[in-house]
């Protein structure tokens, strides 16, 4: 036997608007007598992986590299609140990219590669051709500076990520995560800071993002293998430290970005 009103009383707010619906939230709603909940649907995301040089299986070959973003992005985006509706690989062809962008009905399109100014980088010309509005065209961050955000017709968006894997992750954390949070009605995570255990050199004018791991509850240790094409440091990281121009000395605090990944995707390796 339990007394009425021990956990809540009539008129109490059980959870604030914007709460992510977890199994525990479903149980609480059922216990309180709710048969239905009004929710914001997960934003639908199409991913377009661009590049003639990409392999989808086997070892890298001369002039060919494995596609790391196609396998990595869907689960990452799902953890950030998205429903990934398709992942397509496209050759470096402007017509194929234009057709794929025009044929998508997703709330958000994410492309990988093709955002720089090379002869086979077609994202900017295609966006200009279809009349998209560039909201962000390059960011003063390393890695990841050629990322972009564009508004398409009917309020849809496109995020162009760089082709290098760690540079693409910088775009996921700084462009995709905030946009998906807004579309899904999720509150922005509270920022946090931590002191570094070692000196980290900075870029002369841009901000650097460096993978870090927490050796204890308070200090963040910078990890090696933080180049734009590297994932070895990120795979072991707890977050990405924000290093302002000029660098950070050991013991100094700096902002740390949460990666947004919660637990294993498949199991333990």
Descriptive report:
This protein is an alpha/beta fold and 269 residues long. It has helices at 23-31, 69-79, 94-103, 123-129, 165-184, 232-235; strands at 44-50, 54-55, 65-66, 83-90, 108-112, 133-137, 141-142, 148-151, 157-161, 192-195, 207-214, 220-222, 239-243, 253-258. A hairpin with a 5-residue loop joins strand 11 (207-214) and strand 12 (220-222). Helix 3 (94-103) packs across helix 4. The protein is globular. The chain starts with 22 loop residues before the first helix and ends in an 11-residue tail after the last strand. The model has no long low-confidence stretch (mean pLDDT 91).
Task: Using brief descriptors, characterize the structure shown.
single chain, 269 residues, alpha/beta, 6 helices, 23% helix, 25% strand
Give me the oligomer status.
Answer: single chain
Order of helices and strands: HEEEHEHEHEEEEHEEEHEE
Structural category is alpha/beta
> Shape from CA axes?
globular
Largest sheet: 6 strands, mixed
Mean pLDDT score: 91
Number of strands: 14
How far apart are the first and last residues' alpha carbons, in Å?
Answer: 47 Å
């Amino acid at each position: 036997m339990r007394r009425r009103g021990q956990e809540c009383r009539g008129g109490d707010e059980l959870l604030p608007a914007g709460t992510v619906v977890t199994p525990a939230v479903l149980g609480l709603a059922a216990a309180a007598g709710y048969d239905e909940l009004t929710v914001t649907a997960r934003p639908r995301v199409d991913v377009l992986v661009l590049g003639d040089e990409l392999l989808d299986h086997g070892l890298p070959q001369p002039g060919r590299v494995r596609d790391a973003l196609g396998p990595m992005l869907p689960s990452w985006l799902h953890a950030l609140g998205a429903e990934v509706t398709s992942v397509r690989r496209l050759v470096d062809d402007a017509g194929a990219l234009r057709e794929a962008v025009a044929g998508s009905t997703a709330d958000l399109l994410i492309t990988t590669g093709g955002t720089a100014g090379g002869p086979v980088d077609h994202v900017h010309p295609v966006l200009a051709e279809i009349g998209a509005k560039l909201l962000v065209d390059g960011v003063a961050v390393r890695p990841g500076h050629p990322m972009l955000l564009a508004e398409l017709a009917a309020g849809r968006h496109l995020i162009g990520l760089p082709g290098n894997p760690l540079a693409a992750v910088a775009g996921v954390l700084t462009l995709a995560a905030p946009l998906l949070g807004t579309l899904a009605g999720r509150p922005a995570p509270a920022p946090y800071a931590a002191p570094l255990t070692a000196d980290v050199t900075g870029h002369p004018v841009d901000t650097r993002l460096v993978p870090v791991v927490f050796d204890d509850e308070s200090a963040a240790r910078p990890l090696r293998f933080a180049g734009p094409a590297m994932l070895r440091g990120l795979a072991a990281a707890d977050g990405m430290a924000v290093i302002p121009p000029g660098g950070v000395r050991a013991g100094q605090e700096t902002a740390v970005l949460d990666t947004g990944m919660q637990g294993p995707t498949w199991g333990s390796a």
